[in-house]
Amino acid sequence: MNAGISNATNTRRYIEKLLRKSRDMKGAVHECKLSYDSVLGSLNSALSEVREIKEYETATYDLKIASTDNIERCADAVAKGKVEDETILSGNKVVPIFGMSAYNAVDKLMH
């Protein structure tokens, strides 16, 4: 989870810088900022649920949401806006990998 949080944080920082510079992609990039805010919220919640309260079922839910619904908002926005920024596209590809890997690990803790 820490690696996923780190990666998503770096991508969000990049997006924030891009928002300050570029007006051309602002709509799609703004959606990505909101998407990564949600991804990070879900990943951080899951980490806390695992480490602090051992609430594995809730953690798996948060990990699944981060890996699907939250990141799909950005993926849909960049597709619709025809954004071809490699950093954003790469971030969108790895969030589900980190999230679902963590999901599988936490799911095994429940059994």
UniProtKB/TrEMBL annotation:
<protein>
    <recommendedName>
        <fullName>Pectinesterase inhibitor domain-containing protein</fullName>
    </recommendedName>
</protein>
<feature type="domain" description="Pectinesterase inhibitor">
    <location>
        <begin position="1"/>
        <end position="84"/>
    </location>
</feature>
<dbReference type="Pfam" id="PF04043">
    <property type="entry name" value="PMEI"/>
</dbReference>
<dbReference type="GO" id="GO:0004857">
    <property type="term" value="F:enzyme inhibitor activity"/>
</dbReference>
<dbReference type="InterPro" id="IPR006501">
    <property type="entry name" value="Pectinesterase_inhib_dom"/>
</dbReference>
<dbReference type="InterPro" id="IPR035513">
    <property type="entry name" value="Invertase/methylesterase_inhib"/>
</dbReference>
